[in-house]
Amino acid sequence: MHASKSPVERKLAVEEHLDSSFSTTDVLSISDLHCKYEKTPVVQSASFTLHPGEIGCLLGPSGCGKTTILRTIAGFQNIDQGEIKVDGKLIASPTLSQPPETRNVGMVFQDYALFPHLSVLDNVLFGLNKKDKNTESKALEMLDIVQLKELANRFPHELSGGQQQRIALARALAPSPKLILLDEPFSNLDTELRRSLSLEVREILKAQNTSAILVTHDQEEAFTVADKIGIMMKGKIQQWGTPYDLYHEPANRQIASFIGKGCLIPAKIESSHGVSSELGLASSPHPLLHSVGEEVDLLVRPEDIVFASDSPLHAKVTQKHFLGASCFYDLELPSKQRVSTLLSSHLNFEVGDRVGIRFSADHIITFSKETA
């Protein structure tokens, strides 16, 4: 009989197996990227990596530089500083720019960019090697993956917007690229279709173990599709992390305000785990990174404000947005400070009502006061 392995030995064996089963090379590596149009900086000091099978997202308002980064990866835009590597190979630097067709990168455009005079099948065939005898079967396989094989002989104008988007994805996946780039791919679709298609696209990419970068200004879309998100503002990536990290551990007050409709209210550090504000005393399970007595700003998200009819604290309803199962309320505290809350629509308050509320947060997030 062989002696059974200790827990440490079993852990080492598992880690060794994982190391041998998965590539350690990042599919995408961007280091200290700078870009400018004429003399105007558009992207500054952007750095992030994408692991095999990961879906990343660049999220931010229009004009923040996210599409420019996508264009540099695709090869449509030169860079002024830094490096871009795909699968460990340098594809772009200030002195090197590989042609787009040699980068092993696929792209799905905002307007789908399908050829109107070609059938669905021929659109997917377009990016494949015509000398390969299996091109048609490969294209049909891609159409089957996006569940549109039965429409192979139709033309793009005969398809819905969602179907055209899936055809564009099938065409991008057909050559088996290392990386797929998605430039605002759902922006032309209605809300319900955008939500369902974003889930479908994630499932397809995960089933193919294909890495991807999505560019969007829609937070819900980013959180639905991506494993990692980079928040971009004014040409800089403010934070790169999981949706959970961005929401519960924002790196700065700009991200805190941008993600999740949060607001910041004045507060004071009372102890290593306690902070007081107009909403009352709140306790943090983790030590607060401020000195006792320090004046700070407390992040308050809609889910942190709960209805409490017996609370001594009342807020005035200033706006109401009916969402079906819930209502989103903007509230004014006695100090005129504004906060928001999301409550069951059964409560059904009206603008002008005074509502008893209580602060109830699992994560206490504070920021030092900004100085002029």
TrEMBL record:
Residues 28-259 form the ABC transporter domain. This is ABC transporter ATP-binding protein. Signal peptide: none annotated. PANTHER family: SPERMIDINE/PUTRESCINE IMPORT ATP-BINDING PROTEIN POTA, SPERMIDINE_PUTRESCINE IMPORT ATP-BINDING PROTEIN POTA. It comes from Litoribrevibacter euphylliae. One of its GO terms (molecular function) is ATP binding. It comes from the Bacteria. Keywords: ATP-binding, Cell membrane, Ion transport, Iron, Iron transport, Membrane, Nucleotide-binding, Transport.
